[in-house]
Known about the structure:
Blueprint: H1 3-8, E1 33-37, H2 39-43, H3 47-59, E2 64-70, H4 71-74, H5 100-111, E3 115-121, E4 129-130, E5 142-143, H6 145-158, E6 164-167, E7 181-184, E8 187-190, H7 192-210, E9 215-222, H8 238-245, E10 270-274, H9 297-309, E11 319-321, H10 339-355, E12 359-365, E13 372-374, E14 381-383, H11 398-404, E15 405-412, E16 415-422, E17 430-436, E18 442-449, E19 455-461, E20 467-472, E21 475-476, E22 480-481
Helix pairs in contact: 3-5, 6-7, 7-8, 8-9, 10-11
Amino acid sequence: MRLRSLVLGAAVLALGGCAGRDAGAPRPPTAVVSIVQDDAELLHRSPARIAATLDDLRGSGVDWVRVTAGWSVIAPEPFARTKPDFDATDPAAYPPGAWKALDRVARLTEQRGMRLAVDVAFWAPRWAVERPEGRADRQRDGVRPSDLADFAQAVARRYGQAAAFTVWNEPNHNAFLLPQWERVGGAWRPASPHAYRAMLEAVVPRLKSAAPQALALIGATSSVGTTQGDEPGDRMSPLTFVRELACVDGQLAPLERPECAGFTALPGDGWSHHPYALELAPWASDPRPETVRIGDLQRLTTLLERLHTQGRTRQPLPLYLTEFGYQTNPPDPTWTVTAEDQARWLPEAERIARAAPTVRGTAQFLVRDLPERRGPDLRTRWRDYQSGLRFEDGRAKPAHAAYALGLVALGQGEDVGFWALVRPGRGTRAARITVREPDGSWRTLVERKTAAGGTFEAVVRVHPSRTFRLESGGRAGPPVRGARPPG
């Protein structure tokens, strides 16, 4: 079948994701916000550098700036065993300067017409962690929900104009919530979902009371994990976590266990998820059925829809992808993804996400690569995250241009199907796709007005081996060297 007929039927543009979705079904006209997070760059740099970074983000079409309200950073006496005597719901009762970094980014973001999204998150002060007497291990440690709710109320009172608040970060990840699993009667059972449900039940009503116009996002789940742990710290797969959180089994029948007694429908306005693919191309599906990488979004959206139908969530939960990115080599030699791969794969991931009917937000993590760190011996070196749109020294990677002007090209025979995103701007935007000629010049293939969300699609008779580029507003995206085969 010719590519032209495939694209016009919308099948080719279902490339590499949303497997099983009806490719001919129309997508509802809903807005998708663009979200960027980089706490290091936006909370811990000089005011001038933060302002310049926010100018860069605004110019690239970012809608929300996601930052972390670090509980143990802001709270008084975070290493004390006993809670200090203060009104934890009142932001004015916190130590002088505790809110300074967040206040600054909130002010600068608002001045540039963007909105703040705040994670009420890690880590808990020592005085807010429950540790039963007589237990030396951490198997039953946990965040005290009432204390987290007090902090969340203070955050929401101070930043009530934020677009969204997210409850915690990656609660199915052992770095952020323990225990993940608990041994009961000789068998290992999920523990973190039940602890997190208690956190949600305490926190969400406080957020909605203090900031009624903001969204309360829940989940913030990591993309991978195990379906059956054999020690407390085994990371849990996201779908296992979601079902256990909703107190249902693999067939979505109610779980009969003490933690689920008196279950009430989960609160929240949306589900947050981090669909990292690591070194997989975005259109590749993970063969493990309980994982949810960018190419597996339908697994999660379908489960959330079914849970709401069965009354396990109070309302439908649209999906906000609040963290995503590809780490590159260079600068990190331990990765196989090149800077050119990153520039090509980010638009592919964006298209896959926007093809999912319930996705309302897509994300980029980070703005700038984090610096290399050295161990105590000064010889050991490692890099934390190298998924930035810029290198550590500020030089733009090809992905910087691709984030603003993203182009996907699929080729078959003598036809190429294009999906394009012009992120900067509002409403329709003028754009064109060009092709490089043998003499190095660029010739216009197609000129279009985008839809209100900045996207458009086109099918052009041109050889797939050519090099293409998206242009708009005097800017050009990076070259796309050859159209990849569909599928």
